Amino acid sequence: MNFTNDTKELISILEKSLDIKDFTTPKKNEISIVVDQNNVPTILTYLKDKGWKQLSMITCVDWIEENKFELVYVLFNWTNGITFLVKTKIERENPEYISIIDIFPGARYYERDIHEFFGVKFEGNSDSEKPLFLELWDDKPPMRKDFDPLEYSKRKFPDRKYDVELSKNVVKEVIKEGGINERT
Amino acid sequence: MNIFEEDLNDTITFWEKIKNIFRGKSLWMLHYCTGCGAVELPPTMTARFDMERLGMGPMATPRQADVLLITGYLSVKTLRRVIYTYEQMMTPKYLVGFGSCTLNGGIYYDSYAVINRLDYYLPVDLYLAGCMPRPEAIMNTFKTLENMITKGEANGWKKYVENYDWYRNNQIRSLGEVYVKDEFHE
Ligand code: SF4
Predict the structure, then answer these.
(1) A151 Cβ partners below 8 Å, 6+ apart?
(2) In this protein, which residues make up the domain named NADH:ubiquinone oxidoreductase 30kDa subunit (chain A) (predicted)?
(3) Cβ of A160 and B175 within 8 Å?
(4) How high is the ipTM of this complex?
(5) Which residue among A136, A147, A157 places its CB closest to the CB of B176?
(6) Residue A101 CB: number of other CB atoms within 10 A?
(7) Which of A45, A65, B76, B83 has the most CB atoms around it within 10 Å of its CB?
(8) Cβ-defined contact of B113 to A159 (cutoff 8 Å)
C-alpha cells in the first residue's frame, strides 16, 4: 500500500470510530470497506466531506446462498485518484433500503436501476419504482440469480426452427463436392 | 428487364414494372442503426466502397426512406421503436436484416431483453449473414436487393399488410403492448 499520510489517517479514523467489519485493497488505489447497514449514510457523508465527491456508481450483488443482497457504493476522489468501495449487505426477502439521494443526488437513477434489476426498494427516492430500461416488465427482476433468462427467452421470443438432419446432409453434399475440406 | 409483350397491353403491370426499375435505382436508407453491425456502414458509405455508386444514400426521416436496415440485435425496447418507424415509412419499403442476431438471436439467443428472429415481427426482404458482415458483403446485399426490387421480388411490405394479424399477434406476444411509453416526453 502506498497511500499518502492523509489517507492512512483517514483509514485509521474510520477503523476506530465506526464499525468497519472488513478492510481490503482489491487493487492499487482502491479501498474497500464492509460496513453495517445503518452506518452507510454516515460514512458516505464523511467521505464526501473528505474529498470523495463523485459517486461513480451503485451496484448490487446477489449472494443467493447467503440469502443476501450486497450494495456497493463506488466513490471517487479527484484529488488523489483513490476509489472507495463501501459495501453493505441487506436481506434478500422483500429487500428495502434507505435512499442516499440527499447525500449524492445522482444516486436517483442508480437506485431506479437497482430496483428494476434486483427489486430493491429505496425508501426516500420517489422515483425508485418507476421503470427505467425494461418497459412493461412482467417477471421477477432479471438480474436475480434465480431468474432463468433462457426459459424467459424461449417463452417470450420464439426461436427459428432448424432441421438438423437436413443441414447435416447439406454439409455432406458440400463435402462430397469438395467445397470444404473435411475435418477429422 | 422482364417486360413481356402482353404486359404492354396491361397498363397496371407495365407501369408497375417500369416503376420497379426506377425504385431499384434510387434507394434511400433510413439513418437508424440498432446494433453493432452498424459500424460497418460508415466504410460502406465513404470513399472506399462508396455506396452512392448504387444510387443509395442515407436519409434522416422514415417518411422519406425506402430501406430500413436492422443492423444487428434488437432489444425489446428498440423493437417497439422499430415497429413504429417501419409503419411510418411510405410503401414500397424494404427491410434488410444484418448479421446472425437478426436471423436467430446470435450470441444473444438466451437474453431476456433481445428478440431471437426478426421475421417473426416484421417482414424481412433479405438477410445478410455474418457477425459482423464486411462492407463487401453489405455492398453485395445492396446489389442483390436492387435486383430483387427491379424484378419485383421484394414484397415484404405487401406481406406485412396481408398478414398484419399474424405479425401483430407476435408483436403483442413478445412485447405485451406495442405502444411506446417514454417518461421524458410525457
Ligand atoms: S450479429 Fe454480431 S455484429 Fe451483428 S449485432 Fe449480433 S453480435 Fe453484433
Answers:
(1) none
(2) 33-150
(3) no
(4) 0.82
(5) A136
(6) 19
(7) B76
(8) no
